[in-house]
Specification:
- By secondary structure, the protein is an alpha/beta fold.
- The protein has a single domain, classed as Transcription Regulator spoIIAA (2-Layer Sandwich).
- 38% of the residues lie in helices and 21% in strands.
- It starts with a strand and ends in a 9-residue tail after the last strand.
- This is Anti-anti-sigma regulatory factor.
- Pfam families: STAS.
- GO terms for molecular function: anti-sigma factor antagonist activity.
Length: 111
């Protein structure tokens, strides 16, 4: 199992973002995220932003791409523990209309 994602027995896949999500990580992470979405049948995806401190437009694009992959797979997705600069950028770009933000810790499945 990878350090940045885990799947529980109920099919919930949690993806933990690194501290920085920018163009330097884009291509490596995109390929890995695609693999997880395609290879790990899931009931829901949780994007854990608890460690995320900085994101640029490429990182936002990667998050949007994850949303698109999840939608294509007909799997609910949400982002949790988003704060600081990443939260400001996410909301400024209205990404919260694409991927719901949950502002509290929760282990509950998506509705």
């Amino acid at each position: 199992m990878s350090q940045w994602y885990e799947k529980d027995d109920d099919g919930l896949v949690s993806i933990r973002f690194p501290a920085t999500l920018d163009s330097q990580q884009f291509y490596d992470l995109r390929a890995e995220f695609e693999s997880v979405v395609k290879d790990e049948p899931a009931k829901a995806f949780i994007l854990d932003a608890s460690q995320l401190q900085s994101v640029d437009s490429t990182g936002i694009g990667l998050i949007a791409y994850l949303g698109k992959l999840a939608k294509r797979a007909n799997v609910p997705i949400k982002i949790v523990k988003l704060s600081g600069q990443p939260a400001d950028m996410f909301q400024f770009l209205r990404m919260d209309t694409v991927i719901p933000i949950e502002h509290f810790d929760s282990e509950l499945p998506l509705s």
